[in-house]
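Notes from hallway chat w/ T.B., transcribed later so I don't forget. T.B. wanted the structure written out for a chain they're using in a teaching module, and asked if we could keep both sequence and structure tokens in one place. Agreed to drop them here.
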Amino acid sequence: MTSFDEWLRDAVLRAEETVCSYLPAEEGYQKTVLEAMNYSVKAGGKRLRPLFLKEVYRMFGGSGREEEPFMAAIEMIHTFSLIHDDLPCMDNDRFRRGLPTAWVAYGYDMAVLAGDGLAIYAFETAAKAFSMTSRPERVAKALGLLAEKSGIYGMIGGQTADVELTGKSLDGEQLDFIYRLKTGALLEAPMMIGAILAGASEEQVRTVERMASLVGYAFQIQDDILDLTSTQEVLGKPVLSDEKNHKTTYVSLYGMEKAKQDVEKLSAEAESLLETLPGGHERLGQLIEMLVTRQK
């Protein structure tokens, strides 16, 4: 049997090929913004969101290709959020994935437009799934979910609270809101979309949502831990960024020991929910474990 590491290398390569195959050609008078969009998407990353989408789709018996445009779309949405998150008006970060951030490489104006461009092009890309399926109602439902989880009731809503409350003392409820929307929503979306496209029941989709929410929360806590314990060389982005921006984090609110314990607790709860879903979820479980125990 292929080892997890071997499977992961192959899966990431295939996800990378899928994502890049949907990127726009760099031509025309708008060439600069297209270059900035593609530069940001191609800058690297683990491609975990497309992988989660693909694995959940496969787990529920999906066998077509209608998931592929959504794999590219979720990575575009994620990259758009990173471009804007790095801007001087947000976190003012100069490096992302070991490379200059989009605003450093292309200027503030082009970075804003590149983020906007990816946000909208993601839906243009996802809509291509309509021509690749015999169940267009599933694609329509997945499109609506992608909008909800990336918009004002999802990632952007969480980012809004994060920006407005930066520098202020947060309580647990406020931090919970930010983490569940800003980070959790963009992990819930790909897993739920994979389930929807494959024909999972409503109850199963809700279970996937709860599982993904737990994974997203654990992921964000681990991110807080790494911001304090890792290095820029390992992470590929500045460390101590939260401290620099006077942000309340899970670690600053509850302490390092509880943060580490809760990563394990949330991960275990997610694994328990995964066990209630259809068989063939070994790789998905390994992906979840890798995500929440990562060191970069």
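Follow-up for T.B.: The chain has a mean pLDDT of 92. Might be a good example for the class.
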